[in-house]
Design a protein that fits this description.
The complex is a heterodimer of chains A (238) and B (102).
Chain A (H helix, E strand, L loop, with lengths): L2 E5 L5 E4 L3 E5 L17 E9 L4 E7 L3 E8 L2 E5 L4 E4 L3 E6 L4 E7 L6 E8 L9 E6 L9 E6 L7 E2 L5 E7 L4 E5 L5 E9 L2 E3 L2 E3 L4 E5 L3 E6 L3 E9 L3
Parallel strand pairs in A: 13-14
Antiparallel strand pairs in A: 1-20, 2-3, 3-4, 4-11, 5-10, 6-9, 6-11, 7-8, 7-10, 9-12, 13-15, 15-22, 16-21, 17-20, 17-22, 18-19, 18-21
Chain B lengths: L4 E6 L3 H12 L4 E6 L2 H8 L6 E4 L5 H14 L4 E4 L5 H12 L3
Parallel strand pairs in B: 1-2, 1-3, 3-4
Classes of the chains: A mainly beta (238), B alpha/beta (102).
Chain lengths: 238, 102
C-alpha cells in the first residue's frame, strides 16, 4: 500500500534576510526540524526570492547535486570551473559539487526580484569531478504532459545528475489528468505544486504544497485548476 | 554551563575546510579542529574523545574507509558524520542529528 507524507506550504521553515526570503521544505541553515530532514535522496527544496541586484556571493559546495529552476526573473551564475551564465524561467541548471566548487549567484536584474527553486539531491557517489550544465525546459510546448527535465543518464532528456533521480514538470489545464509511472520500485516521488491546485491520488494540494508518495508504482495527478507541478523521483534508500 | 561539543573535520579541500571550521566555531560551545590526512586524524583522535568526526570532501574511497574503520574500532563513542554540501546549508542539521540535539 502506498505511503505518503504531506508538507503544506505554510508548514515550511523560513528565513527572511531582507534581500532574501526563503521557504525551506526541509531543514536548512538556521531552520532545523528533525522531522523534516529529507525525502529519500531529496535533501533540500528551497523556494527563494532575491531582491533586484542582490545575491549570494562566492561560496563553496561539495558532494551534492544542486539544481536551480528559475520561476520569475533571471539568475546569474559564475563558478570556479569557468562557467558564467544566466538562467531564465524555462531553463534548468545543474551543478555536481563533488570534490569542491565555488560559485556565486546573483539576480541579473537591478529592479525586479528573481524567484527560483534550489534543490539538492544526495549524490550516489562522493567526490566526483565538479561539473555544470544548463538546458531549456520544454513544458511550454507540451501542455498537459509531464516533461522530463532531469535524469541519471546523460543521453536522456534534460540535465543529468549522479543519482537515480528523474524530475518532470507539467503545465496542466483544469480537469486534465496525467499518470506518472515510477522508474524504480524503491523510488519515491515528491510532488511540489508551483501554481494552482491539483489532486494526487485523491490528496488535494494547493500552491507550494509538497506531497511525497512511495511504496507504489504509479500516481495519478488531476488538475483542479490550471496548475504547474514539479515531480521529483528519488531513491528512498541510498 | 553547556557541555563542549568537539568536532574533528577531515577534508582535502583546504578552502572548504576553512569555511566549515569557521562556521562550526561560530557556534557557542562547539570546538572544531581540521585535518587533511588519515595520519593526522589518527594522531588527533589518540587520547581525545571527539563528539563528532565530520567526513569532508576530497578523500579517496580508501581514505574514507580508513577513517570509518578507525572511528568505529578505536572511537566507538564518536559519531561519524559524512558531510554534504560544503557550507552552512546542511552543516548544523548534520551535527544536531548526529547528537540528537533539538
Amino acid at each position: 500500500m502506498a505511503q505518503t507524507v504531506l508538507h503544506t506550504a505554510d508548514s515550511r521553515g523560513g528565513a527572511d534576510h531582507g534581500w532574501l526570503k526563503s521557504y525551506h521544505t526541509f531543514s536548512f541553515a538556521g531552520y532545523y526540524n528533525p522531522e523534516r530532514l529529507n525525502f529519500g535522496a531529496l535533501r533540500v527544496l528551497n523556494d527563494d526570492r532575491v531582491d533586484g541586484g542582490r545575491g549570494f556571493g562566492e561560496h563553496p559546495h561539495d558532494n551534492m547535486e544542486i539544481i536551480s529552476i528559475p520561476l520569475e526573473g533571471s539568475l546569474e551564475h559564475k563558478d570556479s570551473i569557468g562557467n558564467v551564465g544566466v538562467i531564465d524561467p524555462g531553463e534548468i541548471q545543474v551543478m555536481s559539487a563533488g570534490t569542491g566548487i565555488y560559485h556565486a549567484e546573483y539576480n541579473k536584474n537591478k529592479n525586479v526580484p528573481v524567484k527560483f527553486l534550489q534543490i539538492w539531491v544526495f549524490p550516489n557517489k562522493r567526490n566526483v569531478e565538479p561539473r555544470y550544465d544548463q538546458q531549456a525546459i520544454l513544458t511550454a510546448t507540451h501542455p498537459n504532459e509531464l516533461v522530463q527535465i532531469l535524469s541519471p543518464d546523460k543521453n536522456d532528456q534534460g540535465v543529468w545528475i549522479h543519482q537515480d533521480a528523474w524530475f518532470n514538470m507539467g503545465n496542466l489545464e483544469k480537469g486534465h489528468q496525467v499518470v506518472y509511472n515510477f522508474h524504480k520500485k524503491d523510488s519515491g516521488v515528491y510532488i511540489f505544486v508551483l501554481e494552482g491546485s491539483v489532486s494526487v491520488d485523491g490528496q488535494k494540494l494547493a500552491t507550494r504544497d509538497g506531497f511525497g508518495v512511495w511504496d507504489t508504482s504509479a500516481i495519478e495527478i488531476t488538475a483542479d485548476t490550471d496548475a504547474r507541478v514539479l515531480l521529483m523521483e528519488v531513491p528512498m534508500e541510498f | 554551563m553547556k557541555k563542549e561539543i568537539s568536532i574533528l573535520v577531515i577534508g582535502k579541500h583546504e578552502e572548504i575546510l576553512a569555511v566549515i571550521l569557521r562556521l562550526l566555531n561560530k557556534m557557542e560551545n562547539w570546538n572544531a579542529t581540521g585535518v587533511n590526512s588519515c595520519e593526522e586524524l589518527i594522531k588527533q583522535c589518540s587520547g581525545r574523545n571527539f563528539s563528532v568526526v565530520l567526513l569532508g570532501a576530497g578523500l579517496s574511497v580508501e581514505e574514507e574507509q580508513t577513517v570509518k574503520s578507525y572511528v568505529a574500532e578505536e572511537c566507538p563513542e564518536t559519531a561519524l558524520v559524512p558531510h554534504y554540501g560544503g557550507g552552512s546549508g546542511l552543516l548544523y542539521a548534520e551535527i544536531y542529528s548526529a547528537l540528537n540535539i533539538g
